[in-house]
Specification:
The complex is a heterodimer of chains A (114) and B (117). Chain A is mainly β. In chain A, 0% of the residues lie in helices and 59% in strands. In chain A, strands 2, 4, 5, 9, 10 and 11 form a six-stranded mixed sheet that branches. In chain B, strand 4 (31-38) and strand 5 (42-49) form a beta hairpin. The N and C termini of chain B lie far apart (36 Å). The chains are: A mainly beta (114), B mainly beta (117).
């Protein structure tokens, strides 16, 4: 079973700081990576996805991918209390033929303190 | 916006019952997925489907089956519910790769919290 690993946290940062969330994956064949945010009692919602080495920015969020190191991260700039949630990292693995499925990490709990 | 609708937010059933969880998406997505989510275990894939009448086992298919008779609807069936199937169940859908070299993100429904007594 190919795995996606995340530090479970909790990660606690002050309001306005940069939150850095990290993820490693074991499948060298993984091509696409996804970050989801999940508020307590709610379903996961997509924040960003990345498939090329380097950085991808969207507003306050930056995803970083390093395929050589099998490492993907999510930076949240100017963190707000409303960013407090569990962040799930997922990679896309081949499940046979041209079919793919996502494998999720267990998530990192982020708390942003006012 | 993608809309994935699960038929119930909360459901209580008894041990041994046959339980149906329904999921409908309105974006003509080819792919549909069923997960369960438990504290400390994360999201685990039960079954998925890439086309009508097609199904593939995920990581934990035991005790479950699925049905996909129409493209927009994907049903999860607990053949004989047991207490260890008490969980949050999440349905998701996505487009296929459409010849691109990237995989499309999955969009989730609101979840069904199922309790088996």
């Amino acid at each position: 079973q190919k795995e996606v690993e995340q530090n479970s946290g909790p990660l606690s940062v002050p309001e306005g700081a940069i939150a850095s969330l990290n993820c490693t994956y074991s499948d060298r064949g993984s091509q696409s990576f996804f970050w989801y945010r999940q508020y307590s009692g709610k379903s996961p919602e997509l924040i960003m996805f990345i498939y090329s080495n380097g950085d991808k920015e969207d507003g306050r969020f930056t995803a970083q991918l390093n395929k050589a190191s099998q490492y993907v991260s999510l930076l949240i700039r100017d963190s707000q209390p409303s960013d407090s949630a569990t962040y799930l990292c997922a990679d896309s693995q081949n499940s046979g033929g041209s079919n793919y499925k996502l494998t999720f990490g267990k998530g990192t709990l982020l708390t942003v303190n006012p | 916006d993608v809309k994935v609708t699960q038929s119930s937010r909360y459901l209580v059933k008894r041990t041994g019952e046959k339980v149906f969880l329904e999921c409908v998406q309105d974006m003509d997505h080819e792919n549909m997925f069923w997960y369960r989510q438990d504290p400390g275990l994360g999201l685990r894939l039960i079954y998925f489907s890439y086309d009508v009448k097609m199904k593939e086992k995920g990581d934990i298919p035991e005790g479950y089956s699925v049905s996909r008779e129409k493209k927009e609807r994907f049903s999860l069936i607990l053949e004989s519910a047991s207490t260890n199937q008490t969980s949050m169940y999440l349905c998701a859908s996505s487009l296929d790769r459409q010849g691109l070299d990237i995989n499309q993100p999955q969009h989730f429904g609101d979840g069904t919290r199922l309790s088996i007594l």
